[in-house]
Amino acid sequence: MKKTLAVRRDVETFYKEMQKLNKADIIYKDVIDLREGIQNLNKFDQSMVLERIPDDEKLAFLKDITKSLTPEWSNFFLETAYAYHFNYLADAINFYIAAYEKELLIIESVVPLSNEQTERIKASFEKKLQHSFPHVKHQLVPDLIGGVVVRTKNYVLDGSLRKQFTQIERQLHVK
């Protein structure tokens, strides 16, 4: 448990450093790609701790799967592998994703929003939740009909016409 907490601390420190360098978004995409490429993180973790596989083969494998990723993430991932004897690598992946998504604001709308509109929504949401969201993703969702849905990891504000129509429909069926 202590080592898992140490890995989490290491990843959060790395995430904050990358955020200061404006590389957190790029690394997030890399980490998602890495997780999708690995497919089964449990099997990956199990294979990394097998004693019958020499460390140099494990290292060569890790270098191979991270060669197309940003050097910062690749170096951090390899350093983590060394520091924890090839344990907790899946945790490092998941902790980075969690750290990023904790500060991600997703705005869904039917039409594209201007930068000004996005910033206004972001500012009001940050004020309401008293939390900073340095990462904002805008998604076009035609099913909303109109309005916007704003999501964070722990909160959803649905101001869409679809929701309003659904509420009206429920009220009509109740009466």
From TrEMBL:
One of its GO terms (cellular component) is membrane. Keywords: ATP synthesis, Hydrogen ion transport, Ion transport, Membrane, Transport. One of its GO terms (molecular function) is proton-transporting ATP synthase activity, rotational mechanism. InterPro entries: ATPase_OSCP/dsu. It is found in: Membrane. PANTHER family: ATP SYNTHASE DELTA CHAIN (PTHR11910). This is Uncharacterized protein.
